[in-house]
Write a structure and sequence with these properties.
By secondary structure, this protein is of the alpha/beta class. Bound molecules: NADP nicotinamide-adenine-dinucleotide phosphate (NAP).
């Protein structure tokens, strides 16, 4: 795409990932932190980032763990298992910033509008994830709690126990220093976004928790 656009005036917005980081920082990553991927996925996404940065009108958006309508994801796997009374495993040693696809899409829209208005870019890379972060275990427990299901539906597990084919960063929670100066806001917290999504996707019924209302 970079080659095809070379002679055009178009902007290219590339969706990258929090997995460009190795997870060893011990604090949330902002746009100024140096990437250091530990998987093939992370390395190829970073390689694509460099190509996009080599294009004068290239912009990079990094979300973290996505959840939202239209495609199976960790949040829906947990929700559907819990509603069916089935136990799911969730990593207690992997932390990310859950990112609601509708919030990510809306923010990308605002970024593109800012570009179209000629507002000065504060960066070529933007972290676009709901604010805050948590382990997969905490995320799964919150899903189950909001749906009013039994906490026993979520079983903690460590990544090493599952012999994953690819390494994942232990903590790739994202924060942003570049986004608010450009669009005047940050995203809402992941917990607010999750509550909004579950209310939309699994409409409140008698058995649902009071916290969903
Ligand atoms: N999932 C996450 O938690 C997460 C976290 C951080 C960043 N990201 C990034 O966010 C983006 C979306 O993630 P995702 O998990 O939804 O990815 P995905 O499941 O791989 O889907 C990405 C989309 O790209 C399309 N696609 C894949 N390969 C293609 C190809 N060779 N040619 C044309 N279209 C192709 C897919 O089409 P089909 O629908 O036809 O398969 C799908 O619409 C990716 O760039 C990913 O790196 C994801």
């Amino acid at each position: 795409m970079v080659e095809a656009l070379r002679t055009s005036a178009c902007w290219l917005v590339y969706v990258s990932t929090d997995y460009v980081f190795d997870g060893r920082k011990g604090a949330p990553y902002d746009e100024q932190d140096a990437p250091h991927p530990i998987s093939v996925y992370g390395r190829t996404k970073l390689e694509a980032e460099y190509r996009v940065l080599g294009y004068p009108r290239g912009l990079i958006v990094r979300p973290s763990t996505l959840f939202g309508p239209g495609r199976m994801n960790f949040c829906d796997r947990v929700a559907q298992a819990a509603l069916a009374g089935i136990t799911v495993e969730a990593f207690e040693d992997q932390a990310t910033s859950p990112s609601f696809t509708e919030d990510v899409a809306e923010t990308m829209h605002d970024l593109i509008v800012a570009l179209a208005k000629g507002r000065p870019l504060t960066s070529r890379i933007y972290h676009v994830a709901n604010t805050g972060g948590c382990t997969r275990l905490a995320f799964a427990r919150r899903v189950v709690e909001l749906l009013g299901c039994s906490p026993r539906c979520v079983r903690p597990v460590r990544m090493a126990a599952l012999k994953l084919p690819a390494r994942r960063p232990t903590s790739s929670i994202l924060t942003t220093v570049a986004l608010p100066p450009l669009i005047g806001r940050n995203l809402r917290s992941w917990e607010d976004a999750l509550r909004g999504y579950l209310r939309q996707r699994y409409p409140v019924q008698g058995h649902m928790a009071e916290s969903m209302r």
